[in-house]
Amino acid sequence: LNVAPEHAGIYTLAARNRDVAVSYSVQLFVYTEPTVQVEQKSPFHMTGEEAVLTCSSAALPEPRFSWLWKPCGEENPLRCEPSVQADWQILSPIFSYVDHPNGPLDFQQDVSHDVDGTMVYTSTLTLPNPTQNGFYMCTAANRY
User: Structure pTM?
Assistant: First the structure.
């Protein structure tokens, strides 16, 4: 079967004859792996100016978002390119990241409905006072 998210819904089978009418309904859920859409007003922020990064996904079941950070490399001081020496650091809402160069960080996760009724999950990472250049990456995963 080729089932797509647009096939999700309630399906009803109805039968009747001259003596009796019966129906049975079943709800179909279509599970999908997440795809990530990143919303960013500008890739540049002034030092000390709040930066808000938003990542969304319309997966089912609900995705688990992760944010990662990597500083700019020192290979070319005129361009911010990912550092080849530094590893991606996993950012987690469990820790406050007071010691993070752009911390403390604020994490939010919300759910809303798209125009077609699809559940859209959104993760927002707020950097209240960023002071160090770097790259942020959002990932989303579920069991599919």
Answer: 0.70
